[in-house]
Amino acid sequence: MAPRxxxxxxxxxxxxxxxxxxxxxxxxxxxxxxxxxxxxTGTIANGTLRGLPYAGKDTYxxxxxxxxxxxxxxxxxxxxxxxxxxxxxxxxxxxxxTRRQVGYFFECFAEVVRxxxxxxxxxxNFITAAEVRRIGF
Length: 137
Prior knowledge:
Number of helices: 0
Largest sheet: 6 strands, antiparallel
Strand order of the largest sheet: 1-2-3-4-5-6
Structural class: mainly beta
Number of domains: 1
Distance between the termini: 53 Å
Strand content: over 45%
Helix content: under 10%
Order of helices and strands: EEEEEE
């Protein structure tokens, strides 16, 4: 029987995760304006994922495609920018996966809503979300 590995204080049972990009990655560029788009890539060379070595590349495809009203239960934002992001996570070994995010940004508040798709969602206008976040008071 193999000896049990001792966990460092605060380390989860499945092992430590530390994934650091070699250089900063732009996920939003200013000024934010409809029609703006860009691609940004982050590379991880000597990462750790659940206690195992990890290397890979994450690609962010970002576009600002609308400006309008966002109504939430306790407040409304006029002139909110809709920002669509397609994130592709490509490990050095294994299969790449993608997720889509639709975020709404408003001046002085930053991101007020984010909706994230399930993995490998093909549709830009997806209807089933894996996660929804919103500002609330």
